[in-house]
Amino acid sequence: MNHSIVITYCPGCKWLLRAGWMSQELLSTFEAQLYEVILRPGGSGEFHITLNNELIWCRKRDGGFPDAASLKKRVRDIISPDFSLGHCDRSKS
Fold first, then answer.
1. Which CA distances in Å does 38 have to 20, 35, 85, 86?
2. pLDDT value at position 88?
3. From the centroid of its chain, how far is CA 4?
4. What is the mean pLDDT of residues 53-67?
5. Quick one: 88 exposed, middle or buried, by C-beta within 10 A (0-12, 13-18, 19+)?
6. Structure pTM?
């Protein structure tokens, strides 16, 4: 099954590069499972990520931006819970 992710970012805050980097991380990790990753300019201070139209990250709600590992885990837990993320799955010591 293929899934759609939309990353909505604030152009005025210059968050396009951050959104692009996150889309690259997701596409390289889930290339077989994702149909598309869309970068969408949004409103002032806006940064959120939806997966199949469900909100999985919101900068205001979740207190900032996700790191790559956290974002990948959220996506994986929805689209392919048994998929190994390798080093991202290892607990920190």
1. 9, 10, 22, 25
2. 66
3. 11
4. 97
5. middle
6. 0.90
